[in-house]
């Protein structure tokens, strides 16, 4: 049995409270999630939050990194594990339909929706997520171009256009999920989007 010393912060599981912060940011977005809301969700006081994570922006960046390794990892995994870009992206979109509508966590994608309405003071956070999204597009383009170069996709296939189209599809699916679309709705979007690929 441990005894808490007066004035000493209560011990907590850092990963556990970070997961709660992640959910708060995911549900409400960076700007609308206050420090008071974070500490309530995390079950810790402001001094503990600042001591463990720094400020709100630093906490958000760490939450984004956790999201990329956990809930958002399905996209990179699909690209890495499937033999072609087409199969990888088809799998990614279908898994997005499941992930974005899961009742186990907030709907949609944190990277897409968490910083859509930021004040000038939070422009760096908005840019951080924009950089993450653009890096994802670049990964898609490289994967598609590799298949063009190998002959798996027809010569002249516009890898950039397909990558941006895929990203736009994911972004639309995320917003539709937040607006209440079902998994079946998004599965249909995923299937339809693959019709844009060259034969």
Note the main attributes of this structure.
HTH_TetR; single chain; 199 residues; 2 domains; 10 helices; DNA-binding; mainly alpha; 0% strand; Arc Repressor Mutant, subunit A
How would you describe this protein?
This protein is mostly helical. The protein has two domains: 14-66, Arc Repressor Mutant, subunit A (Orthogonal Bundle), CATH 1.10.10; 83-195, Orthogonal Bundle (Tetracycline Repressor, domain 2), CATH 1.10.357. Helix content is 66%, strand content 0%. It has ten helices and no strands. It starts with 13 loop residues before the first helix and ends in a 6-residue tail after the last helix. 31% of the residues are buried.
SSE inventory with pairings:
Blueprint: H1 14-28, H2 35-42, H3 46-53, H4 56-69, H5 74-81, H6 85-100, H7 110-113, H8 123-150, H9 159-178, H10 183-193
Helix pairs in contact: 1-2, 1-4, 5-6, 6-9, 6-10, 8-9, 9-10
DNA-binding region: 34-53
Organism: Kibdelosporangium phytohabitans
Keywords: DNA-binding, Transcription, Transcription regulation
**Corresponding CATH superfamily of the largest domain:** Tetracycline Repressor, domain 2
Strand content: under 5%
Structural class: mainly alpha
The tally of beta strands, per DSSP, is: 0
Provide the CATH topology of the largest domain.
Tetracycline Repressor, domain 2
- What is the N-to-C succession of helices and strands? HHHHHHHHHH
Terminal Cα span: 66 Å
Question: Tell me, what is the CATH class of the largest domain?
Answer: Mainly Alpha
Total of helices: 10
Which architecture of the largest domain does the CATH hierarchy give at level 2? Orthogonal Bundle
Flag low-confidence runs: 1-7
């Amino acid at each position: 049995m441990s005894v808490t010393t007066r004035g000493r912060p209560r011990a907590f599981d850092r990963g556990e409270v970070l997961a709660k912060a992640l959910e708060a940011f995911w549900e409400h977005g960076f700007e609308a999630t206050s420090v008071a809301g974070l500490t309530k969700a995390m079950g810790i006081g402001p001094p503990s939050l600042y001591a463990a994570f720094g400020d709100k922006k630093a906490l958000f960046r760490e939450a984004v990194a956790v999201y990329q390794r956990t809930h958002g990892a399905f996209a990179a995994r699909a690209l890495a594990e499937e033999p072609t870009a087409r199969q990888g992206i088809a799998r990614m979109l279908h898994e997005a339909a499941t992930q974005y509508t899961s009742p186990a966590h907030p709907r949609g994608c944190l990277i897409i929706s968490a910083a859509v309405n930021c004040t000038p003071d939070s422009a760096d956070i908005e840019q951080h997520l924009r950089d993450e999204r653009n890096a994802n597009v670049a990964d898609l383009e490289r994967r598609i171009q590799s298949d063009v170069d190998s002959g798996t996709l027809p010569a002249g296939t516009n890898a950039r256009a397909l990558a941006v189209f895929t990203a736009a599809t994911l972004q639309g699916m995320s917003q539709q999920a937040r607006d209440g679309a079902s998994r079946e709705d998004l599965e249909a979007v995923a299937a339809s989007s693959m019709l844009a690929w060259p034969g």
